[in-house]
Specification:
The longest helix is centred in the N-terminal third of the chain and has 59 residues. Strand 3 and strand 4 form a beta hairpin. The protein has twelve helices and six strands. Helix 3 packs antiparallel against helix 4 and helix 10 packs across helix 11. It has a six-stranded antiparallel sheet with strand order 4-3-2-1-5-6. The chain is α+β, with helices and mostly antiparallel strands and 384 residues long.
Length: 384
């Protein structure tokens, strides 16, 4: 009986469990009822990590994209700036590359390597209209001092000093003979250079700024200087007379110089001892000085008595004979070749007081070297 009861219990248990065992495949899964499955619980953290990684990746990509954009912008800016600079350069080039300025720039470049040919090439090709443009350009650039390079004046004096040094090494007779041979060529070069200066000065100051000897009058064509001005009690024998034309000359801003002989009168106007290329040593008259120069300065040597100034005149007059030859390459001390500024220099240097009027003390003394020597010279009259 007991066994039968146990059998019935077992059978009832199987019957109650049978639908679940037999129809398990057709029943709704716990996941469908809103309960997470084991499988999903294990996968969910991995999906979250993947999402975070993806977001980080996206942020990184966005940062890279942003950097790339910034880099591109910077590059575009640089390109624009570069283009603007190039445009500015082109504009500047256009401003200075006219045919006239090109000739001037070419002259400056070639001058560094071959001075003589650069000068010849420039003057053989430049027109007056181009020269006007070049002079304005030089003034704007602060290159007015290059006019002496442009005309060949600087080159002329450099070459001259080299020749003088060579002549000084020769015996006196040989030096004189060599100088005699060189004089025609020297005078020719001086004439060419002065013509270039005259061309420049005509452009800068007009036709009245350039005068030929014997021509004068009109606006800017001469000055008020006359023999009567030398009769003033303040002006004595041995005082220095300077002539200045508008513009520059081969010697510099001051064109000419001579020594007053102390004997001016209405009947005697040939009273300025000097030297000129065509005449050699001569006595010049006051009328020529009033016609030929825009300015005449009367100057005296500081610290000397009237007698000492007269001695300086007599010292040079004793050795510089009228008609004696002119040479810009004459040494300072030789007594048979002269140029204008050597006359006053020699007189004062070789008088008993031995005053050196040359401001820079070089192998050659120019009118400007004496005129600008404020320590030794006092300008007491000016005529224009």
């Amino acid at each position: 009986m007991k066994k039968l009861k146990n059998l019935i219990v077992v059978m009832l248990t199987i019957t109650m469990l049978a639908p679940e065992l037999v129809g398990a495949k057709d029943q709704t899964s716990p996941a469908d009822l809103g309960q997470p499955s084991v499988k999903k619980l294990t996968l969910e953290p991995e999906t979250s990590k993947a999402t975070e990684t993806q977001k980080e990746k996206q942020k990184t990509e966005e940062k890279q994209t942003s950097k790339e954009r910034e880099t591109q912008k910077e590059k575009q800016k640089e390109k624009q700036t570069s283009k603007e600079k190039e445009t500015q350069k082109e504009k500047k080039k256009k401003l200075i590359t006219s045919p006239a300025i090109q000739k001037y720039e070419m002259f400056k470049r070639d001058y560094e390597f071959d001075k003589d040919n650069a000068i010849e090439a420039f003057w053989g090709d430049v027109t007056d209209e181009e020269l006007v443009e070049i002079l304005k350009f030089m003034d704007k650039k602060g290159e007015e001092d290059k006019q002496r390079e442009l005309t060949g004046s600087d080159s002329f004096w450099e070459e001259g000093e080299q020749v003088m040094k060579k002549l000084e090494e020769l015996p006196e007779e040989e030096a004189h003979a060599e100088l005699e041979k060189l004089n025609p060529e020297i005078n020719k070069k001086m004439e060419i250079i002065n013509k270039r200066f005259h061309r420049i000065n005509t452009i800068l100051y007009g036709k009245n700024g350039i005068k030929e000897r014997g021509w004068g009058g009109g606006n800017g064509g001469g000055n008020s200087f006359s023999y009567a001005d030398l009769e003033d009690d303040d002006i004595v024998k041995g005082d220095i007379v300077f002539g200045d034309q508008s513009g520059d000359e081969i010697y510099g801003e001051i064109t000419h110089v001579g020594l007053y002989d102390g004997e001016a009168s209405q009947t005697n106007t040939d009273v300025i001892l000097s030297a000129l290329p065509d005449n050699g040593v001569l006595k010049e008259n006051t009328e020529d000085w009033s016609r030929y120069y825009d300015y005449v300065y009367i100057s005296t040597v500081k610290g000397l008595t009237d007698e000492e100034k007269a001695e300086a005149y007599d010292t040079v007059a004793a050795v510089a004979d009228i008609g004696e030859k002119y040479s810009v390459l004459a040494s300072k001390e030789e007594t048979d070749a002269w140029y204008c500024s050597k006359i006053p220099w020699y007189g004062y240097k070789n008088a008993s007081n031995s005053v050196d009027l040359d401001m820079d003390g070089g192998p050659k003394v120019t009118p400007e070297d004496i005129f600008a020597n404020k320590n030794k010279i006092k300008h007491i009259r000016i005529f224009n």
